[in-house]
Specification:
- The protein is built from 13 helices and nine strands.
- With 373 residues, the protein is of the alpha/beta class.
- It folds into two domains: 190 residues, P-loop containing nucleotide triphosphate hydrolases (Rossmann fold), CATH 3.40.50.300; 142 residues.
Length: 373
Amino acid sequence: MYTTQQEQLSHERDAIEEAIRNAIKGAGKVNILVAGKTGVGKSTLINTVFRGDLAETGSGRPVTQNTQEITKPGHPLTILDTKGLELKDFAEINETLEKELRDRAADFDGERHIHAAWVCIHEDGRRVEEAEINLCNLLGSYKVPVIVVITKARNDQNFSKEVRDVIKQACEVVRVRAVTEEIEVDEERILLPVKGIDDLIAATAKYIPEAQQRAYANALSSKNLEGLKQKKKQAEREVNMAAGLAGTAAAVPIPFSDAFALVPIQVGMLTKIGITYGMEVSTAAITTMVGSIIGSSAATLIGRAFVTNALKLIPGVGSAAGGALAATTAVALTKALGAAYIAVLHDFCEQKPGAELDIELITSELKRRMKFS
């Protein structure tokens, strides 16, 4: 039974929309617990590392007596902001927090787990409190990776070594200064630049599960070099996975099968890369972006697939030869499209660090680089 051209186009549109929906569903979520005394600089740190000023504009929801869940629509990051480490009734707070940890750890949904914890300690205090040690021990007992963040770092004086010695559960100890500070030394004003943020991003990435890596990359601000590095690394993974799928689909010995199969694979790849680079996880925004790109490129991609499929129909040449060439072409096309998209997004982020992605500008530049008419 033959299908009309209109039916075929409708089928392709449905496949593309499904590919976008599946990529968005697979974007994942990452949860990071941030704890520390009042005034330790948690909000500043969160807003420096992650995009979207979560600590200021995110909606907070109480989850325990002294823990707030901070998130915002379209953002795959949830911050669990734990306060009150300096309070005398920490034992009670500890009990409610332990219940939250226990419930999340037992949940079959990995997106509810706490994937890492930052326990923040002010460097000027030069002291590790018992509450901070107890919290780290509690987190460690639930296998939450603990990163001790020494905030407002100015002069170590071996304090970081003391922290490592005292807090045995710490996977990493990182000294940071989240904003530029001005201090006076001998009546001279000295600027202390931002420090340690890239180290913190890299240290945290080591402990984020594979399933949450795309969400973590999405959440990072592009104004940090390590944030951009993490985005590019994850985006390149997406390209390699898509290229493998494209090669497999194109090698199927059924005439013209890959022409239809390739586009949804590449649409899914574009969607995942866009999410990785910080695009809001929104069906409408991503559909607009992908539709604009693929609208210009689909004819070219399917046209090239048609040429290789024609070999499958030639007696004597056989489907194996046609399939091999189709697979090589499909992999090359997918990698070229993915590499070009990463390059455009990376250039945009480098030129406009921390800015929201300009879909129209990015789409236009990608079309220019790929020479789609």
